[in-house]
Design a protein that fits this description.
Length: about 325
Amino acid sequence: MRVLVTGSAGHLGEALVRTLRRSGHVVVGLDLLDSPHTDAVASVTDRGAVREAIAGADAVLHTATLHKPHVLSHARQEFVDTNVTGTLVLLEEAVAAGVGAFVYTSTTSAFGRALTPGEGEPAAWITEDIVPRPRNIYGVTKVAAEDLCELVARDHGLPCLVLRTSRFFPEPDDSEFVRSGYPDDNAKVNELLYRRIDLSDVVAAHLAAVAGAPRIGFGRYVVSATTPFAPDDLAELRRDAPAVVERLFPGYPDVYARLGWRMFPGIDRVYVNARARADLGWTPRHDFHQVLDRLRAGEDPRSALATSVGAKGYHATSTGPYTVR
């Protein structure tokens, strides 16, 4: 299979290129930044470069984007240019090239304000049926690009799936409260319960989407680690998350005590991946239960792929916790 991967110098792009090449596929990596995993140094808005890179491709994995950390460093027009216009260019060139599967990497940030319940309300149960309410230009442009994917899929028959991925970045948290109050690994393992996914499982979801797109046609999916929680847990999760987690994982306090870790006092949303697992035949391997076993054994909570790709950062000059190069 010949695959175009956009954003090939980024976290997910590099992981996809590595995994696909290791499996014997021919991969063309496209990115603004040169890297060992980039074959075409160009913008996704450069139609000529995109047309050349996509020629003969069986599938497109479109991960290139301006991210949430760029909101304070890039103009809104730049977000529109990259996230919306760039996606349209790729979709149109994919149709022209006869590509058999197009997978767009979106984000759970698309849900925006829908992720935060009101005071005293239960934690939000986030499925694909929740209507997005973007809170910034990042979310607005990701939702717009999703809609373009649906439009082109419906109008031209391009098999296209949208994956709304939860957090998988290795950089420190953007919240000062979390950064100052919890060791970094502690916070990330906590998040596996409800809003995080390991990089290797994101890659597996994208590969499952490539295989499933011709059968499904078009679809949007939440891609996150499998949560142990159920709707009946939501009210208590908001009030007393440690009590719910201990009920489900009676041994977790001992593991956390040995590491000097703490559970978050409350959880405000839960991402639900059931539809992605059912429709795509995707089986994520890394969840809170699996990571607890790794911690008991003294192992790194991250997958080998996540560890090898490491931190990328989002800016060339210092902008705060996201700046790692």
